[in-house]
Design a protein that fits this description.
Blueprint lengths: L4 H25 L1 H4 L3 H28 L4 H24 L6 H28 L2
Helix pairs in contact: 1-3, 1-5, 3-4, 3-5, 4-5
Length: 129
């Protein structure tokens, strides 16, 4: 299975720009709806972009080594990715503030959007085996 990092990065970038544009339009149009500062929104996108690229590079390496266990490796590495995402959210959740729930909700929308993209991208590549 050939997982092309350039193709993945480009498509992930397009997704993140699209989501970010919608996010910023909500932020500018209805700032009380999001309940976040612009810095928080940028932190979410930068962290998730770095996390997704790192996850993809790890998957490429593992798939080359153990292609037979691709599904299991994807699931295991996705659990690690989720753990890192939860660790990222800890400073925003504890102590609880007015921005805790909006931060987590905004983070999860972007996280699950990128996860869906990643599953579709890798599933298409795996069916070409």
């Amino acid at each position: 299975m050939k997982l092309n990092l350039k193709t993945y990065s480009f498509k992930l970038g397009i997704l993140m720009l699209s989501l970010g544009t919608v996010h910023l339009l909500f932020y500018r149009g209805v700032p009380d709806f999001l309940g976040l500062t612009l810095r928080h929104i940028i932190e979410i996108y930068v962290f998730l972009a770095a996390l997704n690229i790192t996850h993809f590079i790890g998957l490429r390496w593992l798939f080359k080594k153990w292609a037979k266990y691709a599904g299991l490796l994807f699931t295991a590495l996705s659990m690690v990715k989720m753990g890192v995402a939860i660790i990222f959210l800890f400073p925003y959740i504890f102590p609880s503030t007015d921005q805790s729930i909006p931060m987590v909700l905004n983070f999860m929308v972007v996280y699950f959007s990128t996860l869906t993209f990643e599953v579709i991208f890798i599933a298409k590549k795996m069916t070409k085996i």
